[in-house]
Structures are given as structure tokens and as C-alpha cells.
Amino acid sequence: MADGRDGVNSIVRCTGFWHYRCMYRLVWLFPLLFACAPLQTNYKPGVSVAQLNRDQTECDVRAERKVPSRVQIRRLPPEYIPGREVCRKNGKCRVIAGYWIPGETVAFDPTENLRARVGQQCMAERGYAPVSIPQCSDAVRAAAPARVTTRLPRLTDSSCVIRNSDGSFQIVNAG
To answer: Which of 56, 76, 105, 174 has its CA 20 to 30 A from that of 135?
Structure first.
């Protein structure tokens, strides 16, 4: 058995009540991870970003009408972590009490994937195709003048995206 200093799973320090505090500390990482992710969008060269947003909204509404949400709620059972005795090499032992981790309440929508496919079909009927545009390198970001893309340019193999802090983006054809 692979035991740490305090026994099995001693590497996992965020358990029980402390689990929630540790997860809270990780929340600040999500904006950083988002900033490094490629831009996933529907794309049609020459279309304005405003028109893209209108078409996307219309297709989302159409998909919601055709495949309405059916959110289901499930309660996961609580989990008991049994107590254990931890002994050191000098023979001194201590008992770590057992505790309960409360069961979570989870909500899910089994129609979510179908609704997304209906929305994507709607966008395809309007001439859009799904694309993934990678983030620009720091060198390209530094060299590009700060702008906001208002009309979608033709994409090349060297196209990349710069995300602006206000949620807008700039597509750069670097090369």
C-alpha cells in the first residue's frame, strides 16, 4: 500500500469541510485558463460580428423551442469517511475521527446535447461553420495594434485571436 506520512490518501489535503475552501481558492484560476483557450465560434468570412451574434441568438432560441430544457435534479448519497489510527515510528498513535461528506444535489439536462446539435444545424443552414482559432503568441500580441474585430476576415493557417478584457476579440492574420 502506498502510504504517505499520515496514511492512505494523505496527499489529498482538501477533504471534508476543507474541500470547499480549497475549491474556492481554485476559482481565481478559471479566468486565466479561459484567456489561454482557443476561440470556439461559428464562422462565416465577411459577416459582421453583430450579425454573427444575431444569428447565433436566433438559432439558440429556435433550438430551445424545438428541444425544450428538461432539467432533472438528483441527490447523491452522503459518503462516510471512517476514522483511522495513525501511528508514528516511535510508537505513539492518535485516532483521526471519521466524518461524513454531505451528498451533493446535482442538476442536469438530458436534452442539452440534442439542443446544441439543433442549434448547430441552424447555423450551418445560414452558412456558418464551427471553427477553433488559437490564441496569438505574446510576440504577435505585442506587435498587433489594439483593435476589435467587427467583420470576420478570411482565416489562414496563421490566423490567431487576441481576447480583449471587455469580452471582445481581435482576429489577426499573422504571417
So the answer is: 56
For the stretch 63-76, pLDDT in tens is: 999 999 999 999 99
The 3-state secondary structure of the chain reads CCCECCECCCCCCCCCHHHHHHHHHHCCHHHHHHHHCCEEEEECCCCEHHHHHHHHHHHHHHHHHHCCCCCEEEECCCEEECCEEEECCCCCEEEECCEEECCCEEEECCCHHHHHHHHHHHHHHCCCEEEEECECCHHHHHHCCCCCCCECCCCCCCEEEEECCCCCEEEEECC
- Distance from C-alpha of 143 to C-alpha of 164, rounded to nearest angstrom: 15
pLDDT of residue 34: 52
Percent of the chain scoring above 90 in pLDDT: 68
Nearest partner of 157 among 138, 169, 137, 173, judged by Cα = 173
pTM over 0.70: no
Q: What is the pLDDT of residue 25?
A: 52
| Nearest to 84, CA basis, from 72, 95, 99 | 95
